[in-house]
Amino acid sequence: MGSNKNIVVIGGGIMGLSAAYFLQKEGHSVTVLDKSEINSGASFVNAGYITPSHIVPLAAPGMITMGMKYMFNSSSPFYMQPRLDLDFMKWAWYFKKSSTKAKVERAMPIIRDINLLSRELYEGMKASKELGDFHIEKKGLLMIYKTEKARDHEIPVAEKAEQMGLEVNYLDREGLGKIEPNIELDALGAVHYECDRHTTPGEFMERMLAHLQDKGVRIVKGEHVVEFETQGQKVRAIRTDKGKYALDEVVVAAGSWSSQLLKKLNLKLPLQAGKGYRINVEAPTQISMPAILMEAKMAVTPMKGFTRFAGTMEFSGINHQIRKERVEAIAKGAERYYRGLKISEDDKDNAQCGLRPVTPDGLPYIGRIKSHDNVVIATGHAMMGWSLGPVTGKLVTELISGQKTSLDLSPFDPERKF
User: N or C: which end of the chain has fewer CB within 10 A?
Assistant: First the structure.
């Protein structure tokens, strides 16, 4: 096709920047609009995993029941703040409907395929050196358990992952000590998903921003989208609080804010913000392996220059309020697994949070909408946003350039029925 289009991408997180990266490669003119300074939020505070092993969607059987159980305990790992909000109640109902064994089975190969393609794209970016030498490591991911109950929960998932062609290893206490030799773990063992990778998100985002600006992508910070100017079935321009941007196509990659924006086009997108927190520990911890601490439901990642402890899924609407009890729960959780680890008050005080956009069935929204034929949506990746940035950017670019998409997009249809 090769026709150069003028494209506005709303959102400067990993989705928006990945879309801009592949779109400019295809010769399109790209403007990225973001209401923030593009230095905080979910793309900066996540655990940095590229994770084909996360084959079970968040909407798995029992999750809503767990949410109900935790509803009044604000330090629990999965917290739904009780609130009378129609959008949230509708979303929770769809989530419950999606949490069936059959739907989870159907989602697994889809999640695996999209993750593997994204991993390949990350590795391609590393090999091309376009973004300089960013941190990406092939150590895999440990699912560490203290109890037989957690182990028995993970083993069937691991076996399923193996059947699906992913590399998995089973470690007992001794095996765990060998793979993580410099700090003593208080745990029974772990499942080691060798297929996974990890990165340092802040570094990658900075490199990506610099690269895009270098390539002539226009990055506009600190502007709020006020309205979409439409004509028939097309959006012709976007008005922000500071200017107006004419366009041929628009990509909505605004994370948890996407559903609010799309209401301006009369589209109701079931999406909720799932807040996650992170603590960075600058002092050396001796931790060398990325891990998920199963009973504590949190992630640990050795990054470039610090160790990150991240976790929780809090559904309390769109806000950046930091709940101290949740930060404390992450710190205490980590200290229960790693003997001698002490997370300082300063590190806890510097905790940050980000909002992940969560769909009812755990699959993202990637695709066009019926009402306006030049609007592409790219959001709803929940805990896999970091993992799926590049592949989403590539799929969006294929759609806009009129190419055959690398994957079947029907499971990601933004207007699918729940």
Answer: N
Determine which of 84-93, 214-223, 251-260, 395-404 has the lowest per-residue pLDDT on average. 84-93
Distance CA 199, CA 58 (A): 22
Residue 417 lies in a domain: no
Q: Retrieve residue 356's tokens.
A: 């992940």
| Average pLDDT value for residue range 188-212 | 98
What pLDDT sits at residue 384?
A: 96
In a domain, 380, yes or no: yes
- Distance from C-alpha of 399 to C-alpha of 395, rounded to nearest angstrom: 6
For residue 142, the cross-strand partners are: 192, 291
What was the pLDDT predicted at 1?
44
113-138 residue pLDDT tens: 999 999 999 999 999 999 999 999 99
Q: In the numeric block, which tokens belong to residue 164?
A: 């699906």
Give the mean pLDDT of 386-400.
98
- The Cα–Cα gap between 364 and 413 comes to 8
* Nearest residue to 311 (alpha-carbon basis) of 328, 325, 334, 330: 330
**CA 272/CA 117 separation, integer angstroms:** 26
In the DSSP assignment, the letter for residue 404 is P
Residue at token pair 């990406």: 136
Q: Concatenated DSSP letters for 268-301?
A: ----EEEEEEEEEE-S-----S-EEETTTTEEEE
> Is there a contact between 62 and 75 (Cβ–Cβ < 8 Å)?
no
Q: What is the CATH number of the domain that holds 119?
A: 3.50.50.60
Cβ neighbour number for residue 136 with a 10 Å cutoff: 17
pTM for the predicted model, two decimal places? 0.96
Specify the 3-state DSSP secondary structure of 315.
strand
Q: Is residue 1 part of a domain?
A: no
pLDDT tens-digit series, residues 335-349 = 999 999 999 999 999
pLDDT at 66: 79
Domain membership of residue 62 as a residue range: 6-412
Residue identified by tokens 């229960």 is: 336
Q: Is 89 exposed, middle or buried (0-12, 13-18, 19+ CB in 10 A)?
A: exposed
In our burial notation (b when 16+ CB lie closer than 10 A, e otherwise), range 90-119 reads ebbebbbebbeeebbeebbebbbbbbbbbb
Count how many domains the chain has.
1
> What percent of the chain clears pLDDT 90, i.e. is strictly above it?
91
SS3 159: helix
In a domain, 128, yes or no: yes
Question: What are φ and ψ of residue 101, in 5° steps?
Answer: -55, -45
